Each structure stands twice: as C-alpha cells, then as structure tokens.
Amino acid sequence: MTELRNVERELHRFRSRVLAAVAFVLIGFGLIGARLFYLQVMQHEKLSARAEANRIAVLPSVPNRGLIVDRNGVVLATNYSAYTLEITPSKLEQPMERVIEQLSEMVEITPRDRRRFKRLLEESKSFDSVPLRNRLSDEEVARFTAQRFLFPGVEVKARLFRQYPLGETGSHLIGYMGRINQAEKKAMEEWDESLQANYRGTDYIGKLGVEQSYETVLHGTTGFEEVETSAGGRAVRRLRTHPPTPGNTVVLSVDIKLQALVEDLFGDRRGALVAMDPRSGEVLAFVSKPTFDPNLFVDGIDVDNWRELNESIDKPLLNRALRGTYPPGSTFKPFMAMAALNTGKRHAGQVIYDNGSFQFGNHTFRSHGDHGLGAVDMHRSIVMSSNVYYYSLANEMGVDLMHDQLEPFGFGRRTGIDIQGEATGILPSTEWKRRAYKRPEQQKWYAGETISLGIGQGYNNFTMLQVANAMSTLLSGGQRPPPHLVREVQDVVTHQKRPVEREALPPLALKPEHVEIIKRAMYGVTQEGTSTRVFAGAPYKSGGKTGTAQAVTVRQHERYNAARLAEHQRDHSLYLAFAPLEEPTIALAVVVENAGFGAAAAAPIARRVFDYWLLGNYPSEDDVAATRRGQSVAPIGTPRRAEDVPLPGNVEVLAGFGTPPQRMAQGAAANEEVKR
Length: 676
What we know:
The chain is an alpha+beta fold. The chain contains 25 helices and 23 strands. Helix 11 (256-266) packs antiparallel against helix 23. The chain starts with 6 loop residues before the first helix and ends with a helix. Mean pLDDT is 86; it is low at 659-676.
C-alpha cells in the first residue's frame, strides 16, 4: 500500500525548524558576544582590578605602639615582640579539642592557657585568629614549624606585646592594654572610615588611664604589604611594602620616682594622693592605693587573678584619686573662710566664741573632744580647726550661697583631667537635693542639714583630685588651668616635642589680700596648729590643713571610739598642703582611709613629698617604715639623695630629657628665707 505524504508541507516544517535552530544559535552567540563585550570592554577596569585583588593580598602591618615616659624620660610603658600560637576556628579540619591535644604534645599548653583561650574564643568570631599560647620559645617555634602541614588553621605569628617595667607603680594613671572585646568592636564601627582603616589588624587597645585616653596618639599609623598569592592562597612573592609608622611618645608631667615614693609610704593602707603644680595644672603624682600589676592584662588575665582583684574588699581596681569620693572634713575650712571673705559674711578679725558645741534647735553639734577654744578669729579658726566657727558660718551663709561660692573652685564637678572616668562628687544645694531624691519629703532641704556642711561633712563628697585642684586655684589667685597628666607629645619621626594645648577656665576674681589671709593661716597650722609636730625642723615654709572625715555616722549622744568599730568603718585621715609659702610650686591633697586623725597618717606623707620635691631628699627605709606606722615624722635615718635611689625593675631612661631636676637650690633658698 502506497504511503501518501505531503512533501511540500514536510519540507516547510524542516526549513522552519532549521531557521529556528539557526536563529536560536545566532541569538545565543549574540548574547555571548554581548556579554563578552560587556565584560571585556565596558567592565574591563573593574574586573581587572578585581582579578588583581584576587592575585594580590594586602596585609596590614600593625605599628609599634608609642612609649609612655615620665617627666624625666623614665620609660613607663614599652613593647616587646614574641611568637604566639594561634587558631582560626573556621579553618580547622578536626574538632577543636583534638587539635589542642595534638598541639600540647609539641608545645606546653597550661590550664591557664586553655582557660584564657576559651574566654577569648567566646568573645571572637569563627574567622578570627585566637591566641592559644603566647611567648613561644625558639625551640617550640621550630618544633611546630616542622609539622605545620598537619595543622591547617593553626599558625605561629609574631606579635608585639605591651610591657610595664615598673609593674604596679603608677598603674592607675598609666592604665593597661587589653584585647578588643565585642562591645569595643561595635563602638569602633561608628568611627570614621580613615580611623577604622588605621585599626585593621589591631587586636589590642588601651584600657583605662593614659593608655585609653591617648589611644590614637600611641597607636601610630598602620602600614601594609602587597603579596602575590597562588590560586591556593599561598604567598608567592612580596610586591610592595609600606612600613607602619610607630606611635608617638607620650610624656607625662608625673615624676615617677615621687609616685613610687608615695606608694611606698602608703604601704598596705588604702587611700589616694594628688600633687599638682598650681602654676600650670601639671599633675606631679597621682596615687591610688592599693595598685595592681597591668602586666597581668597584657595577654589576657586569668580567672584566679581576676577574681582576686575584682572581689577584694580593698578594691585595687578602683582609681581612688579619680573616682574615690570622700567627705573633706576640716580640709574644707580654708575654702569656707575664703567664701566668707568673698561674700562679706565674715572679715578676718571678726571673733566667734567657741565653747565646744553649737546648738541648732534640739540638736547639738560638737567640736573635737567637746573642748572649747574660746575667742576665735578666722586665722585661729583654721590654725586650731574650730568646728563651732564653721558651724555658725554655714548657718549664716546657707547651703545655696555656699554652693555658689565653692562650685567655681571645682567642687562637685569634673575637673576635666585628661583621662576618662572622673567622678563628679557632691557639692550639695537645694536644687541638687530635688534632683537626687524621688520622694517629696526627701527632696526638701532642712536647715539643720546645712550646719555640718561647714566642717566638710554631711552630703559633701569630693575626690582628692578636686580638693588638690581647688587648692591650686586658690594659691594661683583664681587662675584655673585644667589639671593634666600629659605634658607633651614627642613626634616619633621628627623627635620634636609638642606641648598639649589646653583651654583654661576663666579666672576667679579673688582678692590677693584674701588669698594671703588663707595662706598665712594654713602656714600657722604647721607652726602652732594641728600639724606642728609633723613639720618641725622643716627647712622650708609650707601651709597645710588636717582633716578627719567620718566613714560612718555616729549617733548624736555617742562618742566616737575607733576600737569599737571595724577597720573599714573608722574615720579617714586627710591633709591639704602647699609649699613653699611665698611662691608655691606644689599643692597636694591626701587621704588615708580609716586611719584616724589627719596629722597622724596623712600629714607625714605630705612632709615626705615636700622633702623630696623641694630638697631632693628621699627618706631612709626606716623613715618610710615609720611613716607607714604613723609613729615618726622626724628623720630617724640619714635621708638619701633622690637621684641615688634606684627605681624597681629594669628601667630605661630616654635620652634628651636631661637628669631629674635638681631642687637643692630651692631648698637652700627656703633655708635662707626661714633664717631671715
């Protein structure tokens, strides 16, 4: 049977299919050609740069951190390089614990290393390199390198570590370095792009003190290396290098030998001391006791040391000079006297009768030991520390006038010192109380609350930095340069020293004759008043004011008895001082916690400071021990020359700072003045 087909129709279908196939092929090649044109011509520069980037790895080079030195060039913070064994979790091909166990057969890994690694691992991302073991020896590096191929994701890196040669000395003012945590990484994301770029590859930043506040000055400028890599990511050759620029040197105004002396004089006692140059605001010593060793934090503090520091009843991590607030006690009286002169509430010759107590309503405010001093003028009120004089003065002035007169001296507000974390303190007023309390009955100011403010008690609470700064303001006749720890910055490239510019507050309108009245009264304290014994035989004239501040409130009809109280509940010992009398070059405030009367514990420390600063004398070891006990102020042993006393540790002194200042000329001049 013959098959009937429509040849013409089939040929038409065939031709249609061929044409469709040809069209499809042409369109396909057209799309490929268009894509090639787009990639090869229009996107050439962009893709060429991307290909180059895939071929070339840009590696950041972290700069050497700048040095921190004292005013005489003594190095307080430096760097050293060491090898670290690091793990990148995302690159591991075996379980973490198994890798660590295998590594421990070649390199010693202690339980402390494991605990620290676990903590850092929790704070890091999986693609971050986390140090397992620091400071590898050359032998350990060689053993690992020989078998490195067995441990993908593990490598040895050379890193710089911060070192504090003097250990605990000055730790609160210097601060320390620590690994960047997640909160800090998040904060760094808010920085501008150039600053973020400068911190690529940086794992450690400054924490607390000068290390934190001058972070960008100390950090330096990050460099980079361009390295050609293979398809597998292995470095083939170095193409270009831009070396990093080390951080600049930060020069402190602090004399670290004076700092070490004061810390030694405190011994195991708690407290703070701030010494300043009233002419410039330079901080000469910034002591908080107890201290801590910042080297513990460099490669991650272990749990045991952290628990010991954090849970200690003595709170060694608290910067008492910056954040510790105390009632000023009788050291407040010279400022109350100045406020009285400024407002006309009292003149220097006005006499108040001190019978040992001050009656206000049904409450009796008592003096020391309930002993009256009789007729008291302003000079005698400071020399003999009359409570009744200042009870009555506070009652006459009222809390708001006192606040308005004393706040410009820096009480109850931050001084603006160049490290972070300063406490505000409390200088009370009716407005302050309304803001501080919630319930209406608590917000009301009662007249009886004003009385104890006059002797530095009640709500008054200040840092030693505020008290020393207020003393400097008074001595300078009202000039208010901000207190500062950093004197200048030395450029690491040019070696030029650039003073750090600071804007002073407008000066106070203090009358010179009023300032002289207060200075002479404070001089009288050392000659016939409460610190006479401490400054007996001193070859210079100084002014001072003792203070005793309550740590706990004693009921009205109870007598204070230190023996019945726990050590942490006893009164604080304070002393406010300056020297020399005519042209002061140093002013200080010191508190020794729970040590009792100001002349017993705090004033002897001030005497040793002045002997060092004005005469260049460093106390003998017997004198240091006696000062700690509060048993002696007259020299027992022969004083040593300050320059002959070595600092602890392996200390380096930078060239170009000269020798520590010789102060014997000042001491000789002071001797001649006393003779005249």
